Amino acid sequence: MTIDSRTGALTPPPVAKRRDHVVRAPFGAERRDPYYWLRDDRREDAEVLGHLRAENAYADAVMAALRPLEDRLYEEFVGRIKQDDQSVPYRKRGYWYYSRFETGKDYPIHARRKGDLTSPEEVLLDVDALAAGKDYYQVGNYQVTQDGALLAWADDTAGRRQYTIRFRDLATGSGLGDAIAGTSGAMVWADDGRTLYYIENDPQTLLGRWVKRHVLGTSAADDAVVYEETDDAFHLSLYRTRDDRFLCIAIESTVSSELRFTPAAAPADFQVLAPRERDVEYGADHHDGRWVIRTNAAASDDTGARNFRIAVAPTAAGGRARWRDWIGHRDDVFIESFELFDRFVAIAERSNGLARIRIIRGAPGDPPDHESHVAADEPAYAMHLSINAEPDTDWLRYRYTSLTTPGTTYEVDVRSGERRLLKRDPVLGGYEPADYTTERLWAPARDGTRIPVSLVYRKGLPKDGTGALLQYGYGSYGAAMDPAFSLTTVSLLDRGVVYALAHVRGGQELGRAWYDDGRLLKKMNTFTDFIDVTEHLVRLGYAAPDRVAAYGGSAGGLLMGAIANLAPERYRVILSQVPFVDVVTTMLDPGIPLTTNEYDEWGNPAERSYYDYMLSYSPYDNIAPKPYPAMFIGTGLWDSQVQYWEPAKYVARVRDHATGGRPIVFRVNLDAGHGGKSGRFRRYREMAEMYAFLLDQLGVADGEEPTTAT
Question: Is the pTM of this model over 0.85?
Answer without folding.
Answer: yes
